[in-house]
């Protein structure tokens, strides 16, 4: 049998990819039947929930596409058109009335210098601003801002979304075995948290 030989460059790239995957898995969350493993996934879970619970109010939650890599020319064009560094991920309204800004973070990520300036700007001017790391924090902020009322707003059943599906009972066992606990739709890391392999796609039994 031929022996597989990896050169240094390939090995380094594989190691870097493995590190990034494990780094993300350390902060995996469980949101409405879907394994969430990145900031993008978390944002998608917010919008899926919002669009189903408020189908007639989609314009009350607007994403500001201020992330991603761009060419220098295109980046300058966007800045010339008014894209501001540090702008939050979401502008939140209540039936057309502006309420505040939400910045989404994942894992151990924190605000960038520009984002801190924006946060301070909001504080100085009495504008609502929140930084959230989990689905529960997102809904808690909406509740605190008087937008979401869990007694009034019926949360729909979430099933069969594209992505990693797993029943709640199976998820609780998996998370318990890996130092995590499920709490109101999100997963809170414990001090003895471990890294575990990606979940396999299965039908939601919950």
Account of the 3D structure:
The chain is α+β, with helices and mostly antiparallel strands. It folds into 2 domains: 130 residues, Trna Endonuclease, Chain: A, domain 1, CATH 3.40.1350; 43 residues, no CATH class. 36% of the residues lie in helices and 17% in strands. The chain is built from 6 helices and 8 strands, in the order H-E-E-H-E-H-E-E-H-E-H-H-E-E. The chain has a 4-stranded mixed beta sheet with strand order 3-4-5-6. The chain has a two-stranded antiparallel sheet with strand order 1-2. It has a two-stranded antiparallel ribbon with strand order 7-8.
Task: List key phrases describing it.
single chain; 206 residues; alpha+beta; Trna Endonuclease, Chain: A, domain 1; 2 domains; four-stranded mixed sheet; two-stranded antiparallel sheet; 6 helices; 36% helix; disordered C terminus
- Count up the helices: 6
CATH architectural name of the largest domain: 3-Layer(aba) Sandwich
For the secondary structure, the number of strands is 8
CATH topology of the largest domain: Trna Endonuclease, Chain: A, domain 1
Give a brief rundown of this model:
With 206 residues, the protein is of the alpha+beta class. Helix content is 36%, strand content 17%. The protein folds into two domains: 32-161, 3-Layer(aba) Sandwich (Trna Endonuclease, Chain: A, domain 1), CATH 3.40.1350.10; 164-206, no CATH class.
What's the helix and strand layout?
Elements: H1 8-25, E1 29-31, E2 34-36, H2 39-53, E3 61-63, H3 72-80, E4 90-94, E5 97-104, H4 113-124, E6 128-132, H5 135-144, H6 168-177, E7 180-183, E8 186-189
Parallel strand pairs: 5-6
Antiparallel strand pairs: 1-2, 3-4, 4-5, 7-8
């Amino acid at each position: 049998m031929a022996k597989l030989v990896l050169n240094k460059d390939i090995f380094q790239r594989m190691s870097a990819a493995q590190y990034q995957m494990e780094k993300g898995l350390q902060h995996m969350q469980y949101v409405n039947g879907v394994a969430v493993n990145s900031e993008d996934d978390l944002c998608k879970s917010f919008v899926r929930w919002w669009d189903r619970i408020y189908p007639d109010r989609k314009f009350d939650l607007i994403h500001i596409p201020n992330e991603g890599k761009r060419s220098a020319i295109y980046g300058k064009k966007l800045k010339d058109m008014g894209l501001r560094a540090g702008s939050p991920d979401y502008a939140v309204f209540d039936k057309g009335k502006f309420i505040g800004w939400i910045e989404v973070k994942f894992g151990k990520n924190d605000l960038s210098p520009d984002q801190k300036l924006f946060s301070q700007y909001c504080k100085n001017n009495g504008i609502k601003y929140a930084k959230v790391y989990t689905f529960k924090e997102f809904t808690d902020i909406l509740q605190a801002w008087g937008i979401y009322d869990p007694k009034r707003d019926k949360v729909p059943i979430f099933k069969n979304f594209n992505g990693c599906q797993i029943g709640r009972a199976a998820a609780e066992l998996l998370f318990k075995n890996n130092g995590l606990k499920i709490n109101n739709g999100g997963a809170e890391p414990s001090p003895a948290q471990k890294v575990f392999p990606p979940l396999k796609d299965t039908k939601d039994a919950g």
